[in-house]
User: Fold this.
Amino acid sequence: MACCGKNALNSTPLAEYARSLTNEMSRDAVQWHFPMYTVPLSTLLEMTQVEPHEVLMERGWLVKFHRSKGKAAFVSHQWAAADHPDPDFKQLRVLQEALKHAMEKLVAIPVDAISEVADSKAKLLHTFELQSEPLFIWYDYFSCPQSEDKGPEAGRGKLLDAIDSIPAYVDECSFFFALVPVVEDLSRSKLITPFTWQERGWCRLERICRELSTNESWVIVKSSTELELVASATASILNGSGPVGEGIFTVLEDRLKLAPVLLSAIKRKMQRLLKSQDLAGYRALLNRQTAMLRGFQCDPLGGFVPDTEDSSSTPVKHFCHQNGFRSIHEKDRYGWQALHYAALKGDPYLVQDLLALQADPNCGTKRGHEALGLEIGSTPLTICCLFQHTDAARVLISAKSAVRGGGTVYHPLGCAALTNNAESIQILCDAGCSPRDQNTFGFSAMAFAGNVGALASMKELLQQTGHVPALDPTRALQFAMYGCGGSAEVVQWLVDLKADVNDQNFATAFQGTRSFRAIYTLKVLQHKFHKVTSATKRLYHVEGATALMMALLTSQYEGAAALIAAGARLDLRNARGWKAADFMRGRSVPDLVATTRS
Assistant:
């Protein structure tokens, strides 16, 4: 059933509205509510302690940044204490050494393995870009006021102004560094790791602001010598680990401050997408808001197109009008229909209405969606599972949506596993999925869950499987260390299930199907004779490798320490003749594993 006529999508009210914005202005003005204070790189490299904004201001070390001065880098990091980000100067020392290492010894910062596989066009970050112009560093403790006048005349406060300006600061920065070395917190009671960074609400906000900026790529700084560029939507989503509103906050009231900040960043991105005529990207962000704002008590932004009496007469007509569809069966440049975007929005009533109008619950997309990291052939159910819309998924399943299809790589169960969505795993298995189901390349949902350390997914898959041997905890442990899921918690849980920390048969996981055997062979030959990348390095060394070797190769030092504590042997060699110590040679390794060198 059509919402209107059958004209092309470029003649819809949405397309006309986008063209009107294009003529309005060529570029958004960066709006700072508080100046963007930075420190020059040379000043940062000379520091021996982390001191607050007020001290640096008094010394004259801070510079009000403007693009005419050079380039800026935004540093996202987890605080080591409630009242100080880095009292022992451990994290900032890693940043100092990593920047020196990158500019003095690297030609380029390599693309991370997920980006490399997900996007063949992903580009390295050549380090000359860090040096082509003067570089200035934005770091919250330096750049934002740390003491506020609490008197009755204080007004709104400079700190809140700086917080509201975070999207603009991120947008103005040419580079974004996630500073995530494994270090102890001030109390020495726990570790600060990439996983704890991913859990923090403030860090999630900064990362999502980068995704919503004009330059979406960002650099993970794992140690003084280990830097990787996250350069694809798939990798960014998997490394981001959840909505801002569901993140951890030391001060609970901070959560209330961030919803309007995130909404302002979303609105600005949506306007840019419209002005650039990227209507598919606009649709993706318009409907993804539901997932992005989860955990906040606020409504997503509505569509920007003025409604008419006819377009607002039913929810389906309103949805089609705001998304630029003349018919529920029309497709945009990615081959996405209205039902795909409704699944992304996660509104079960809208999904039900579209199905009642004969929308196809099993329609696969015709292209991968760049803004969402989704591949060709993704079904509405796959989309629901990836973005954790379980109510909408139930509606689709009741309409006979196929639970065992929906993509070459990411089938519904695999997407639920990747996003730690235990509830969706349960309803999919109730509908006929098996925890043993594999994708086209022979990988199971447990492989996906292990790869990203999705512990809730692994526990639910174990419950659905019914017995530990079918789960294969050893293989799950190896996938965690091969990917980015090597937390100490994951290691301990799998070891308790009798995972063999010294198993050396992981390479068989890449021999499951003819198609992936071909990819495996190609990548190994590429590493040996052509060029070394993050993905080729892993596949080259995987034959005969233990979980510990893979953890060290992928710089997952928290997991490596947990494996050593669980009895991982240091004398074993992989098929290339390498021992665990060989994977640490020439690299900056945290103290908790450095003592194992031999």
The chain has 31 helices and eleven strands. The two ends are 70 Å apart (CA to CA). The first strand starts at residue 37 and ends at 40.
